[in-house]
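Why do we bother with holo predictions? Because pocket geometry can differ from the apo form. Keep that in mind while you read this record for S-adenosylmethionine.
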Amino acid sequence: MLILKNAQQFSHEMILSVNLEDGIFIDATAGNGHDTLFLAQHIEKGSKILAFDIQEQAILQTRHLLQNNDLEEKVTCILDSHAQISNYLDEKDFVRLAIFNLGYLPKTDKSVVTRASSTLEAIQILLDRLEKKGKIIIVSYYGHDGGLDEKNSVEGLISTLPQKEWSVLKYQFINQINCPPICYVIEKK
Ligand code: SAM
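The structure, written out:
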């Protein structure tokens, strides 16, 4: 039996759809570390993970979660904006998969949220550095102030990617109240 998955579960399915060996994986919004942990639990030999967040609290929490699961050696946690991703890649590096969760760190005062300008900058960098068959996964929580603008900006950019080179998917329940999250998936052909 196939039960429909929510956006977050679907994003994890997408992680499992790529080759998990010998790749560079990026969590662009580490937050409480759940996606980073999922990546670390599933990548295989030769792969590495870079996890970014601009909040020290998020980086500490992510490290803590990884340590509790004996997986810290698989991840480099980086206290910096995902707009600076290129500073942490070698010139010859290509990225197998990157995941974003747009919004605010759960259980905080919502004062720090992802913003359209840096999100778009990071997506653009990743589009240039993505491997063939690589994926960028963006889970957008957009019910907060400014969230709709960011969602629309992201959708505006990725919906114009030429279909010869890119497959772009939007996954969302359309009968749920309160801005149900959307999972976008960009795949390089
Ligand atoms: N994926 C996370 C998890 O599993 O817990 C949840 C991420 S939360 C929705 C969004 C995170 O993005 C917040 O922790 C916030 O600090 C972070 N963030 C906001 N702007 C950022 C930026 N420019 N670069 C990196 N992280 C950023």
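The chain has a mean pLDDT of 97.
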